[in-house]
Amino acid sequence: MAITIETIHSHSLAAAAGLQADDKIVSINGHTVTDFLDLQFYGADKELTIQFLRDGKAHTLHISQDWETPLGIEPVEHRCRTCVNHCIFCFVDQMRPGIRDTLHIKDDDFRLSFVFGNFITLTNLNQLDIAKIIEQRLSPLYISVHTTNPELHKRMLRYHHDFNILHTLRYLSAAGISFHTQIVVIPGWNDATELQRTLDELSAPDISTLTIGIVPVGITRYRESLTPLSRIDALQATRILELASRYPKAFCSDEFYLLSNTPIPPTKFYDDFAQLENGIGMTRLLLNNWAVVKEDFCDDLALVGNRFVFVCGMLIRPIIEKIVEEISAISGLDARMQTIENNFLGPQVTVTGLLAADDIFAQLELTDDEIPIFSAGMFNDNLLTIDNVEQAVIPQHFGRAIMVVQEEFDDWKVVAGNDGCETENEILCYKNAKE
Questions:
Q1: Please, how many CA atoms are within 13 Å of residue 243, restricted to the half-sphere of its CB?
Q2: In this structure, are 159 and 261 located in the same domain?
Q3: Do residues 103 and 223 both lie within one domain?
Q4: CA gap 293, 284 in Å, rounded
Q5: In this predicted structure, what is the pLDDT of residue 346?
Q6: pLDDT value at position 428?
Q7: Which CATH number characterizes residue 321's domain?
Q8: In three state form, how does the secondary structure of the chain look?
């Protein structure tokens, strides 16, 4: 195997040595190169002997690094390894047509786990993969465990080969690899005594667990021919919070607190917010940031208009209600909240980030001068909603500017459609444009 070069940066060591785009790097210093991590790891030595293919012919060159000039090799985009499991709770299997293409990808790649914090199951690793993880010290990894009971693990993830998650975690731990772990809790499957068993075993001293994230199973309306599952209810959420409180490394997602009407823990509880992308501690950060920025936010609101409506999913409603009340008290502005039911994926999906533009268009009713406020979590990096609607389409649909607030309330902006406000200060630009 080899890795293909996409680009050689000008004025780099690789350019000076004569490497070109489309060359295929076979090895560095005798080590086979198969991915971007191999390139980074083996390419970090001072003296490099690079074997490569050009037009099918083998070549060798030498590079001496001076630690000032960049090596300058940009490989082609990594093709992620996908999942070999058929999990009974897989959210991808419950998706409907018409969603963002990336939401159909079942990634399960240990390289992306190390670099980006993606959760992986370890079930698709071979001995060479495990040896690479250990040699290159790819730590910490983010690992979806779900249960340490080997029989239950196989029934939940539905793979057919021999695999023991606990044995693999012990092996990696002994080799110096640590990990953040995840448990998707499903009532009647891996909750109650099974959850306690998993927490006990992940907390054992021979397992290098850094954190244990506990999240509730997500269920959409698209589960025909799939295993029947139940959602976590308020009573179950309370019980899981109580159980998790006995384990210093265990952290429950915000949904458990919101479902059970339990106060969100203080900042110190979350340590370094290692599982923020799992929805663990996000509400605490939102509340912390809101306490700091609320007066500045209200000042910016006054520049944009007089009446506002926060648009959100059902789950976060109690938090947004308090923010709306404070806005009215601080500024005298007219603010309200409207929750949107998720018909696109089903009413059991209550998080704001999975709201579809179609549901917002159908349910959100605005007065003539109301400006809607949306969470940035509704949009991906390409500013698309889950049903592939561009962010810029929303102000066009409603015929007015909208505001978009970051999920943790640390930033916000005006999206005004086609008024040309694409500066660093969209708020002031929008105000001047109105005047």
A1: 21
A2: yes
A3: yes
A4: 14
A5: 94
A6: 56
A7: 3.40.50
A8: CCEEEEEECCCCHHHHHCCCCCCEEEEECCEECCCHHHHHHHCCCCEEEEEEEECCEEEEEEEECCCCCCCCEEECCCCCCECCCCCCCCCHHHCCCCCCHHHHCCECCHHHHHHHCCCECCCCCCHHHHHHHHHCCCCCEEEECCCCCHHHHHHHHCCCCCCCHHHHHHHHHHCCCCEEEEEEECCCCCCHHHHHHHHHHHCCCCCCEEEEEEEECCCCCCCCCCCCCCCCCHHHHHHHHHHHCCCCCEEECHHHHHHHCCCCCCHHHHCCCCCHHHCCCHHHHHHHHHHHHHHHHHHHHHHHCCEEEEEECCCCHHHHHHHHHHHHHHHCCEEEEEECCCCCCCCCCCCHHHCCHHHHHHHCCCCCCEEEEEEHHHCCCCCECCCCCECCHHHHHHCCCEEEECCCCCCEEEECCCCCCCCCCHHHHHHHHHC
Specify whether 132 is located in the same domain as 200. yes
User: How much is the pLDDT for 422?
Assistant: 45
Question: What are the backbone dihedrals phi and psi of residue 393, each rounded to the nearest 5 degrees, phi first?
Answer: -75, -30
Residue 407 domain boundaries:
285-434
What's the CATH number where 9 sits? 2.30.42.10
The model's pTM is: 0.90
Number of domains in the chain: 3
Q: Do 179 and 111 lie in a common domain? A: yes
If asked whether residues 354 and 403 sit together in one domain, one would say: yes
pLDDT per 10-residue tile (average), the chain, 435 residues:
93 95 96 95 96 96 95 94 93 82 81 95 96 97 98 96 96 98 98 98 98 96 91 97 98 97 96 93 96 94 93 96 94 94 94 96 94 95 93 94 93 76 52 52
| Assigned domain for 87 exists | no
